[in-house]
UniProtKB/TrEMBL annotation:
One record GO biological process: innate immune response
Co-factor requirement: Zn(2+)
Transmembrane segments: none
The protein's name: MsrB domain-containing protein
Signal sequence extent: none
Keyword Zinc belongs to the record: yes
Location(s) in or outside the cell: Cytoplasm, Cytoskeleton; Nucleus
Domain MsrB: 22-147
GO CC terms, sorted: cytoplasm; cytoskeleton; nucleus
PROSITE patterns with a match to the protein in the record: MSRB (PS51790)
GO molecular function: L-methionine-(R)-S-oxide reductase activity; metal ion binding; peptide-methionine (R)-S-oxide reductase activity
Protein's organism: Paramecium primaurelia
Length: 159
């Protein structure tokens, strides 16, 4: 199901004090063509509901890119099953992910793609060895890519 937002109406409502946002809302005009769900995650720093994303239970070998800019963020070798309902990794690809604000109270920090500044998920310090970090990533922020190697299962190749 797709929900249509009318951003002008939302901005008008905020200006007239009909809606009081808990935090400052950033409206990215260059991103209004995004699917509203992806916009909500990338710009408003939303988290999708656990166990609903495409990749929380995905275990193919390959690379996870930023959905919006195709920057390589994670590799399947860094993925593990955390049972939290999010695609979970213990490490990110070099120079690809940036920690932004830290919520001390909840013991996690927000993460964004270093290239396009889209919000992707959270990091906390309760992951497995060797890093003991847990990256909880929204599937909607990711695009899976399977590089062509000596893959035997040809039907599984990327689109
Ligand atoms: Zn990106």
């Amino acid at each position: 199901m797709k929900i249509k937002f009318q951003f002008s109406k939302i901005i008008e409502a905020i200006n007239r004090n009909l809606i009081k946002p808990k935090q400052k809302i950033e409206i990215r005009l260059d991103r209004l063509s995004m699917d509203p769900h992806r916009y909500w995650i990338a710009v408003a720093k939303g988290m999708e509901r656990p166990f609903t994303g495409e990749f929380w239970n995905h275990d193919q070998q390959g690379v996870y890119q930023c959905f919006h800019c195709q920057n390589t963020l994670f590799q399947s070798d860094y993925k593990y099953q955390s049972q939290t309902g999010y695609a979970s990794f213990f490490k990110h690809h070099k120079n690809s992910v940036k920690t932004i604000e830290t919520k001390e109270k909840y013991r996690y920090s927000a993460l964004q793609c270093m290239n396009c500044q889209s919000y992707i998920g959270q990091i906390s310090k309760d992951g497995p060895p060797p890093t003991f970090l847990r990256y909880s990533i929204n599937s909607s922020a990711l695009k899976f890519y399977q590089p062509k190697k000596n893959q035997t299962n040809l039907n599984q190749s990327q689109k």
